[in-house]
Specification:
Elements lengths: L1 E2 L2 H20 L8 E7 L3 H17 L2 E7 L5 H13 L5 E4 L10 H6 L11 H9 L7 H12 L8 E5 L6 H9 L6 E5 L6 H6 L3 E4 L17 E4 L3 E3 L2 E3 L12 E2 L6 H17 L9
Parallel strand pairs: 1-11, 2-3, 2-4, 5-6, 5-7, 7-8, 8-11
Antiparallel strand pairs: 9-10
Helix pairs in contact: 1-9, 2-9, 6-7, 6-9
């Protein structure tokens, strides 16, 4: 088995972005892209993730715009923060860190983001663009998974891919992206309503576990030599663990670690979406 090391691939992507930004800085008339974040409340995991995104920006030279609001922030205050980044010329793209305190409905806030500044690719317009094949920001974790597999030369065209989980940030968009002609995989999505899930998972060349349940994928579910991508992230005491049981490493042909696999790729794709937006590659996306 070999490890799908997201850290090393993400580091190379950041290096390429830094080279691009350094080139802009050598041109006095060039604008520098900026990433904005809106963080509501003080959830430790969200604070840590937002801080990591801004460290990435500092490393590569992308400007940071950060808005932190208390957990008691009103809908109006959150809306004002979104409007301010929508209109801020320094902000190439931004995101609203989820989940919001109290699991309040975030959909209306996502809809308020300018689709061209939606660097997470989760605006309803951009999810529709994904379905339609329109060039637009794509969700970062699915993008990162595909880039990680390609970096390690895992054959995707014609591969039988099983995605475990149908969430809007990973499972659903990844199924569409994997079945796109450019990738050309044959995709099944396993979820709580699936009959004979173990049989379907075992038929896969590539298994992508994105259910958010500790160690739910066991070695009995995996065919020898299959590629396994672990998207799950659950805190188990002081450790972070994934959806894939450690014993799978004895059977899989390739496996992404937790942490250090998909997570760094997600952050790298966020930066790449900012760069692509700065280059005007999403100008065709409707408002």
């Amino acid at each position: 088995m070999f490890t799908l090391d997201g850290k090393s691939i993400a580091a190379q992507i950041r290096s390429d972005i830094k080279t691009y930004i350094d080139g802009l800085k050598d041109n006095p008339g060039a604008s520098i892209p900026g990433l904005g974040t809106i963080l509501v409340g003080d959830d430790p995991a969200s604070k840590s993730y937002v801080a990591a995104k801004h460290r990435d920006c500092s490393e590569v030279g992308i400007n940071s715009l950060r808005i932190d609001l208390p957990a008691t922030a009103s809908d109006g205050e959150i809306g004002e923060a979104i409007a301010s980044l929508n209109s801020d010329a320094r902000c190439t793209g931004f995101l609203l860190q989820l989940p919001l305190p109290g699991n309040q409905n975030h959909h209306r806030f996502l809809e308020a983001i300018d689709p061209k500044k939606d660097c997470d690719g989760l605006h309803p317009v951009n999810l529709g663009n994904l379905v339609s094949g329109v060039v637009a920001p794509r969700p970062c974790t699915p993008l990162g998974i595909i880039r990680l597999l390609r970096a390690y030369k895992i054959e995707l065209s014609g591969a039988r891919v099983v995605i475990v989980g149908r969430g809007v940030t990973v499972g659903r968009p990844l199924a569409l992206m994997m079945s796109d002609r450019e990738v050309n995989a044959t995709v099944s999505v396993v979820h709580t309503g699936t009959k004979n899930p173990q049989e379907i998972i075992k038929s896969a060349d590539i298994v992508i576990a994105a259910a958010g349940r500790k160690w739910m994928i066991t070695k009995e579910m995996i065919s020898a030599g299959a590629t396994v991508v672990d998207v799950g992230l659950t805190r188990d005491g002081s450790k972070l663990v994934g959806d894939v049981h450690p014993d799978v490493s004895h059977l899989a042909g390739a496996l992404s670690p937790v942490p250090g696999g998909v997570g760094p790729m997600t952050r790298a794709m966020l930066l790449e979406n900012i760069i692509r937006s700065h280059r005007g590659e999403f100008e065709g996306a409707p408002k």
